[in-house]
User: Which sequence fits this backbone?
């Protein structure tokens, strides 16, 4: 029996010691910064309320309807059911959908948020709210009722949450960012299609869904986080030339201030975005649940001589997992501006020339993922640039991320002297971040003509050289860093981008490696435990031998 007790003691000591030892090992193997590792588990909305607005002249009522329907379809694709989506439809569009639960007014909104939601959301659960309408400062237009003000929504949310529930609000509308300071709170994430001072736009390509909402919901249906989808939607707004007039905002650090993406188009940005990057709409979708078509190759910026008209061949290559319905090259001048809205509440109008044969050109399939065609620019401006957007859509109506290149027009069609340095950002980790374990150090660059390479240095030592291809999009330069190979404390990360004429740009950040050492007392406890157990076993065995010998002598 003594030996059994000793063995139990041995196993107990070893188990306790190795459990704590293993905890230390696990904490040093996490990827990213210490701040990132402290995020809570992934959040998902449990149910949704869709609120469709309108105004007295019913301007763009059809586009509001099809965008709301697109959002509803996406939620179904993400695993929600008709029973978990409450759909408020504008009075003008009543009867134009088979899904409507009620007509939008202040009473039905209040009931949806304070009564229906409580039957669907568990304690600490999340209610998703998608709103789309014309807007004004702190206003969402709904008719025939008076406008639904930001403070109306705040009061309805207060009545719904009562300290037990969370909310995620997505508002597509002009000046929608003005809702952020009114709604911001500790259990709320707020995404708006633009800031408090700007209008929202419709997508220039058919069927003209709302410019922010379409790429946002496409991305979440692909299994991306809310934060990643926000970045994708912002990128599409900017790529198609609307970035000067529409600025999507996010507030998820609950300070009442919305922020756009950071300088390289990502989150977090000025404190916002961490929660969004850890929140998903598609709860049961694995990453890349819906594989979006994407451009693998498109041309670098080129130049042509000024003539009238200008005819230019273009070629792109696409990766896709579903059949492609169309590939469009959309051409606008660098100084193109979208049509002004009818008034201060209107969404921006679609340019009447933004159609096939106007600014848009269909490309032909050449096999092997290759598409090509001819674009024509009539009455081109000399010594100017033209934006070439490439837009791909599959047979299911799913569009990939819009990619952009440029065409220069000048007297001789030759590139001008290159006098500009490349642009360059270290996109991960953040400056000043605490990191440990395995971390991807990432740098992103571009150039107005042609980027040659990006190099990454760690404490002055070259650790990565990425040579750029002669086509877009440029890949990121990535160094997979095992931080355990370096000492704890401050370290320097430097990246240098070089273009094909030798111009360079260098940027540096400081980071702090904070790998937790293995405490010596845990190792000592294992050793001592083993020794104690061995001594105990040996002692018991010796005592037993002595007893046996005594019995034999007697």
Assistant:
């Amino acid at each position: 029996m003594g030996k059994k007790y000793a063995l139990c003691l041995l196993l107990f000591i070893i188990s306790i010691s190795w459990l704590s030892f293993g905890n230390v090992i696990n904490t040093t193997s996490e990827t990213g910064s210490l701040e990132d590792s402290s995020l809570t588990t992934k959040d998902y909305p449990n149910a949704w309320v869709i609120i469709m607005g309108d105004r007295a002249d019913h301007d763009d009522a059809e586009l509001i309807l099809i965008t709301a329907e697109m959002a509803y379809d996406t939620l179904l694709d993400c695993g929600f059911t008709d029973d978990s989506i409450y759909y408020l439809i504008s009075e003008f569009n009543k009867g134009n959908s088979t899904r409507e639960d009620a007509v939008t007014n202040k009473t039905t909104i209040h009931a949806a948020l304070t009564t229906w939601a409580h039957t669907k959301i568990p304690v600490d659960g999340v209610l998703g709210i998608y709103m789309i309408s014309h807007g004004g400062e702190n206003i969402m237009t709904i008719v025939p009722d008076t406008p639904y003000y930001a403070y109306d929504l705040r009061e309805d949310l207060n009545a719904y949450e009562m300290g037990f529930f969370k909310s995620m609000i997505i508002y597509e509308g002009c000046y929608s960012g003005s809702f952020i300071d009114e709604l911001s709170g500790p259990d709320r994430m707020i995404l708006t299609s633009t800031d408090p001072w700007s209008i929202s736009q419709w997508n220039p390509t058919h069927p003209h869904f709302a410019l922010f909402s379409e790429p946002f919901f496409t991305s979440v249906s692909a299994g991306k986080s809310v934060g990643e989808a926000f970045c994708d939607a912002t990128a599409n707004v900017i790529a198609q030339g609307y970035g000067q007039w529409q600025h999507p905002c996010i507030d998820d650090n609950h300070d009442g201030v919305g922020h756009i993406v950071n300088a390289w188009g990502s989150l977090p940005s000025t404190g916002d975005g961490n929660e969004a990057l850890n929140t998903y709409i598609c709860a049961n979708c694995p990453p890349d649940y819906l594989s979006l078509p994407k451009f693998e190759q498109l041309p670098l910026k080129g130049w042509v001589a000024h003539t009238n008209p200008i005819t230019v061949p273009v070629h792109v290559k696409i990766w896709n997992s579903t059949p492609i319905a169309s590939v469009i090259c959309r051409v606008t001048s660098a100084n193109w501006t979208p049509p002004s809205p009818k008034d201060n509440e209107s969404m921006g109008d679609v340019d009447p020339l933004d159609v096939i044969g106007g600014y848009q050109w269909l490309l032909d399939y050449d096999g092997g993922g290759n598409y090509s065609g001819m674009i024509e620019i009539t009455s081109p401006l000399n010594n100017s640039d033209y934006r070439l957007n490439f837009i791909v859509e599959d047979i299911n109506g799913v569009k990939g991320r819009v990619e952009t290149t440029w065409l220069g027009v000048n007297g001789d069609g030759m590139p001008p002297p290159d006098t500009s340095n490349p642009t360059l950002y270290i996109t991960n980790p953040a400056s000043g971040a605490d990191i440990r374990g395995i971390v991807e150090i990432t740098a992103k660059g571009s150039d107005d003509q042609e980027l040659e390479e990006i190099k990454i240095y760690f404490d002055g030592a070259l650790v990565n050289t990425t040579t750029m291809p002669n086509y877009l999009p440029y890949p990121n330069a990535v160094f997979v860093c095992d931080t355990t190979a370096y000492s704890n404390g401050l370290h320097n990360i430097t990246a240098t981008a070089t273009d094909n004429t030798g111009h360079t740009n260098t940027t540096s950040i400081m980071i702090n490696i904070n790998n937790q050492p293995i405490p010596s007392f845990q190792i000592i406890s294992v050793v001592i435990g083993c020794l104690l157990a061995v001594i105990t076993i040996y002692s018991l065995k010796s005592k037993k031998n002595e007893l046996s010998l005594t019995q034999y002598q007697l």
About this structure: The longest helix spans residues 520-553. The CA atoms of residues 317 and 367 lie 10 Å apart. The chain has four domains: 2-28+517-553, 47-278, 294-410, 423-513. The radius of gyration is 30 Å.
